[in-house]
Amino acid sequence: MNISINGSVLEGGGQILRNSVTLSALSGKAIHIHQIRNGRKPPGLKNQHRTGLQLAAEIASAKLTGATNGSTEIEFTPGALKTPGDFVADSVTAGSTTLLLQIALPLLLFASQPSKTPSRLTLKGGTNATHAPQIDYTENVFLPFVRRFFGIRTELQVNRRGYYPKGGGEVLFSVTPLSQCLKSFGLLERGNVRCIKGIAHFAKLPGHIGPSMVDGAKKLLSVRLAEDSSSSIPIEIQSRRERNDNTVGAGSGVVLWAELEGGGIIGGSAVGTKGIDASLLGEKAAQDLLRGLDAGGCVDEWLEDQIIIFMALAEGDSAILCGKGELQLHTRTAIWVAEQLTEARFNTEQLESGHTIIRCKGIGYRPSASSDIPC
Ligand SMILES: Nc1ncnc2c1ncn2[C@@H]1O[C@H](COP(=O)(O)OP(=O)(O)OP(=O)(O)O)[C@@H](O)[C@H]1O
Fold first, then answer.
1. What DSSP string runs through 292-304?
2. pLDDT confidence tier of residue 369, bands split at 50, 70 and 90
3. Is 330 an active-site residue?
4. If you measure from the C-alpha of residue 128 to the centroid of ligand 1, how many angstroms do you get, rounded to a whole number?
5. From CA 222, how far away is CA 45, in angstroms rounded?
6. Whose CA is nearest to atom 3 of ligand 1?
7. Residue 370 predicted with pLDDT over 60
8. What is the 373 CA–ligand 1 centroid distance (Å)?
9. Model pTM?
10. What string of DSSP letters covers 144-176?
11. Distance of CA 107 to the CA centre of its chain
12. Is the pLDDT of residue 169 over 90?
């Protein structure tokens, strides 16, 4: 019988769908998801979600029903995971390529073990949108983190940026299948900030936009770091103008990240909107980063939810120190989904300092055909 997943629980967004389908494909358990994206207006599948479902169905040889735009109900019956290969998904609009990666990455890691041949995943759509990781965040925050702590090896190449609303971007991921279970990890010491880096990107806009975004971000960061007597922290933000003939629409954005002595990474970002002052955009990204740094965790509020699925699949006990205050709704939702579809168990501990530690006993996932994979 299908496992029923209520898509309106907690955050009620697309992440429930992505994590549920990925875990269904890995566990071989058929699922029925209803009330999809009930927490969003309008609810139901958008291009990006439908494309992600179709991509997962292809990789997992699954039977998929109900995956049309606007649909609030789907059924996903997984088959065998494909061997590493070439996969292409196109969300047609500016639908986020990085959210397509969220659904596909765990599947490609476990594609037909043991094999050292990487899968090539070409994702088309938006690369720098709001309410999703910008591709520069995925490249400089998410991927380095999962490489360092879970042993996940990927290469990323941005062939073309795709800005909202036209999209048209293209990114290529090369994903090396794991030759062992995902590693568990403990990261409870934040340490000082080693350096702050960033990218201010733009296309089809006047040339001064890039340096203005950089100045806006640097000014605010310098003032704040000086107040905290941390003015010796190096800040390196690049201005990157995209070639006009290699971008469909105009757009801009800033992604910043702070590398911590303990190995954690904190990101902050902002996406340009029509008419916004470039320097202000840089400041907004800096404010986002400072908010993440002030929270005092080893990961920012976004990375927090994006690593939950890997903690669930990893072998044994993982622990991560998160920022002060309540856990993000996205994080609590990811935990809920992982516990519905796997035997992984999470618990959270609120410290006197206000920080939260998430602990997880992961399942040490291996595909059933590959019980010889060491953990
Ligand atoms: N500024 C950001 N930086 C990094 N990651 C982000 C940022 N904003 C959102 N995300 C990530 O994007 C994902 C969004 O999940 P959500 O459930 O909101 O998806 P969704 O409903 O598909 O989104 P949408 O309604 O925008 O299509 C989460 O994993 C979240 O961590």
1. HHHHT-SB-HHHH
2. low
3. yes
4. 12
5. 42
6. 133
7. no
8. 33
9. 0.96
10. HHHHHHH---EEEEEEE--BTTTB-EEEEEEEP
11. 15
12. yes
| Phi, psi for residue 281 in degrees, rounded to 5 | -65, -45
> Nearest Cα to 300, choosing from 321, 272, 270?
321
Q: How far is CA 99 from the centre of its chain?
A: 7
Question: Residues forming the annotated binding site for ATP?
Answer: 102
Is the CB of residue 185 below 6 angstroms from any atom belonging to ligand 1? Answer: no
* Ligand 1 pocket member 242 (CB < 6 A): no
How far out from the chain centre does Cα 264 lie?
15
- Our measurement of the distance from residue 224's CA atom to the centroid of its chain's CA atoms, rounded to an integer in Å, reads 28
Whether residue 198 has its Cβ less than 6 Å from ligand 1: no
Task: Answer yes or no: is the C-beta of 305 below 6 A from any ligand 1 atom.
Answer: yes
* Mutate-to-test residue for ligand 1 from 98, 131, 143, 199, highest number of ligand atoms within 8 A of CB: 131
Query: ipTM score of the complex?
Result: 0.96
Q: What integer is the mean pLDDT of 291-300?
A: 97
- Interval 128-155: pLDDT, tens: 999 999 999 999 999 999 999 999 999 9
- 234-273 per-position pLDDT tens digit: 999 999 999 988 898 999 999 999 999 999 999 999 999 9
